[in-house]
TrEMBL record:
Annotated [4Fe-4S] cluster binding sites: 43, 47, 50
Lineage, highest ranks first: Bacteria, Bacillati, Bacillota, Bacilli, Bacillales
Residues binding S-adenosyl-L-methionine, per UniProt: 49-51, 87
SUPFAM superfamilies reported for this sequence: Radical SAM enzymes (SSF102114)
GO molecular function: 4 iron, 4 sulfur cluster binding; carbon-nitrogen lyase activity; magnesium ion binding; S-adenosyl-L-methionine binding
Protein encoded by which gene: queE
Alphabetical GO biological process terms: tRNA queuosine(34) biosynthetic process
Protein name in UniProt: 7-carboxy-7-deazaguanine synthase
Residues given in the record as Mg(2+) binding sites: 52
InterPro entries in the record: 7-CO-7-deazaguanine_synth-like (IPR024924), Aldolase_TIM (IPR013785), rSAM (IPR007197), rSAM_sf (IPR058240)
Protein's organism: Ferroacidibacillus organovorans
Amino acid sequence: MSEAAVGRETQAIRLPLVEIFETVEGEGTQAGYPTVFVRLFGCPLRCVWCDTPYSYAPAKAEFTMTIEQIVLRVASFKAARVCLTGGEPLMYHEHSAALLRALSELPRLVDVHVETSGAIDLTSFLKDVRSSKVRYIVDYKLKESGETAKMIAANFTVLRPQDELKFVIASDADFDEAMAVLDRFHPLCTVLVSPVFGAMEPEHLVDRLLKEGRPHVKLNLQIHKVIWDPNQRGV
Ligand SMILES: Nc1nc2[nH]cc(C(=O)O)c2c(=O)[nH]1
Ligand code: SF4
Ligand SMILES: [Mg+2]
């Protein structure tokens, strides 16, 4: 296929979206930095404690955009960081990869990170999206989520130092399982433990973490839920 044909193909793709907004990143190693959020519609999982059920059926996509339109919208904000989230933003496979490549080509951006569920094979993305700006923040869905069976084990062996592995913890049993997962995969990336909002007291999670003696596991609190109403969208 010629370059022009590839360009036309990319222009023809329309991705379903929920929202695009600028705020401060509420989670992970980049928490606090101004960040543009691109929330794609759709998710193949149904986590019990999901905080964004408006991002998949029976809700509907709010609008669709071409990759070019998404990039132009992102470029209209001032942030130097982008978070591609959902839903599951990698469920559109080669189209998701094309969006990541296009975003990473925006000169002002220094970081393009993806919030993904652990249920989409990352190996093809690592191969097809070459920019060093692109990083993956991968959830390992623990038992209380109800979605552990969908975890792709290979994802947890390919994470690089710039990536992040996040365990969202709803119970003591979830915490124990997370520690066992670490002992199984020994990931090279930053490891985060995050309490399920309203289900696990942050203080209890810190207590478990300190007793466990895991000096390189980091507590992750969702600061956007502290700053704004936890149910508010677009923040
Ligand atoms: N401020 C803010 N930070 C976030 N980090 C991850 C988010 C998400 O919904 O995936 C999110 C979000 O929705 N808002
Ligand atoms: S993967 Fe994320 S968006 Fe999908 S159901 Fe689970 S928490 Fe919700
Ligand atoms: Mg999310």
